[in-house]
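R.M. (postdoc): so does anyone remember the format we settled on? I'll just put the C-alpha cells first.
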C-alpha cells in the first residue's frame, strides 16, 4: 500500500480477518491481543484514507465488537455515512449474550460530498408461497415507486455463501450480492476499487464484472483468486441473476406467483416502468465480461482444469 499514489482510489473496501483465531496461513496471526489488533487496523486504515480520492468511499466490514472502535477512529478522519447492519447469523449462541446476528459494514467518505451515491432499489418482500406482501402498505400502494423500495441500512437479503460449485474455496468469502451493492452505491464504470484483503477475490470479481478497475493485496496465497477468475463466468451468471431482482417492485418470480394466486397488482403503477435499454446493455456487458475473461484465462492459465471439467 505505501507504494500506491495518494488520492487515487474511488472505493476502498476492507474485509480483514476478525481476530477470531482463524487459520489464514503462516503469514497471518489472527489471534492478536485486542489492543494490538485495533492498532494494526489503525495502520492500514491510515493508508486506506491516504489512497482515497476526495469524495471517495471507505467501507469496512467487521464484527460490531471491532467496528465500534474503528468507526470512532474513522469518524475523526472521514465523514460518517452509515453503519449498515448486514443480517447474517454467523455463530453459535453465546451464553450470557444476545445471539449475534449482524455484521457491521461501515461506510464513510473522504470530505463531505460523495462523488457517487447510487443505491439500487429493492423489490417488495413477498411470501414465497402465496405471493402476498409481507408488510402491509395499506393505501400507499399507488404511491410506491415502480422501481422498488429504498435501500435501508439494514440488509436482510444477503445470503451466506454456499459453495455448491466452489468447494475448494476458503471460508469467509463474502457474497457477490453484497459487493455488487457496495459498488453500485459508490462507484461508476472505470472507477478504481481497492481491497487490501483479497481472500478469494470477491471484490475483484465483482469489480471486473461491473467494469470497474481494481487493485488488491493478499498476503497469503493468491491461488484462490487466480482460480476464481478462471471460472468467473459462473460468477457472471450468478451476478446477472442477482441484478434481475434489482430496481423492480416485484421480481419476475413474485409476479408469477401473484398471477397464479390471483393477487391484484392494479394499485401498483407497474406499467409505468420498463427496464431501460441502458440496463439491458449493462446486464449483457456483465455476462460478456465474464465469458471474455474466461477465454483469456484459458490461454494464460492452462492449469485451470475445473473450467473445462465443469463445462
Ligand atoms: C476475511 S478474508 C477476506 C475474504 C474476501 N473478502 C473474500 O470475499 O474472499 C481476509 C483475508 O485477508 C488476508 N490477510 C490477512 N492479513 C493480511 C495482510 N496483512 N495483508 C493482506 N492480506 C491479509 C487473509 O489471508 C485473508 O485471505
Amino acid at each position: 500500500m505505501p507504494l500506491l499514489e495518494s488520492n487515487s482510489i474511488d472505493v476502498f473496501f476492507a474485509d480483514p480477518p476478525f481476530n477470531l483465531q482463524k487459520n489464514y496461513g503462516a503469514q497471518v496471526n489472527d489471534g492478536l491481543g485486542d489492543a494490538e489488533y485495533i492498532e494494526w487496523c489503525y495502520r492500514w486504515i491510515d493508508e486506506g484514507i491516504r489512497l482515497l480520492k476526495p469524495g471517495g468511499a471507505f467501507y469496512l466490514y467487521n464484527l460490531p465488537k471491532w467496528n465500534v472502535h474503528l468507526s470512532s477512529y474513522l469518524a475523526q478522519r472521514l465523514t460518517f455515512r452509515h453503519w449498515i447492519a448486514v443480517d447474517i447469523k454467523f455463530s453459535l449462541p453465546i451464553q450470557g449474550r444476545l445471539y449475534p446476528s449482524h455484521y457491521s459494514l461501515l461506510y464513510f467518505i473522504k470530505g463531505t460530498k460523495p462523488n457517487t451515491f447510487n443505491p439500487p432499489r429493492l423489490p417488495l418482500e413477498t411470501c414465497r408461497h402465496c405471493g402476498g406482501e409481507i408488510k402491509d402498505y395499506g393505501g400507499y400502494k399507488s404511491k410506491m415507486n415502480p422501481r422498488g423500495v429504498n435501500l435501508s441500512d439494514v440488509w436482510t437479503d444477503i445470503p451466506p455463501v454456499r459453495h455448491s460449485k466452489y468447494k475448494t474455496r476458503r471460508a469467509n468469502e463474502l457474497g457477490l450480492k453484497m459487493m455488487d451493492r457496495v459498488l453500485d452505491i459508490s462507484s461508476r464504470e472505470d472507477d478504481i476499487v481497492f481491497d487490501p484483503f483479497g481472500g478469494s477475490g470477491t471484490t475483484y470479481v465483482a469489480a471486473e464484472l461491473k467494469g470497474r478497475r481494481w487493485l488488491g493485496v493478499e498476503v497469503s496465497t493468491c491461488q484462490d483468486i487466480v482460480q476464481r477468475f478462471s471460472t468467473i463466468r459462473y460468477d457472471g451468471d450468478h451476478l446477472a441473476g442477482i441484478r434481475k431482482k434489482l430496481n423492480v417492485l416485484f421480481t419476475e418470480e413474485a409476479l408469477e406467483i401473484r398471477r397464479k394466486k390471483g393477487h391484484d397488482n392494479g394499485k401498483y403503477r407497474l406499467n409505468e416502468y420498463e427496464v431501460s435499454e441502458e440496463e439491458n446493455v449493462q446486464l449483457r456487458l456483465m455476462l460478456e465480461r465474464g465469458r471474455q475473461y474466461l477465454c483469456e484465462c484459458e490461454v494464460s492459465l492452462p492449469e485451470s482444469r475445473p473450467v473445462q471439467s465443469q463445462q
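R.M.: ...and that's the designed sequence above, right after the C-alpha cells. Also worth knowing: The CA atoms of residues 5 and 27 lie 25 Å apart. Residues 15-17, 24-25, 28, 172-174, 196-197, 199-202, 217-220 surround S-adenosylmethionine (CB under 6 Å).
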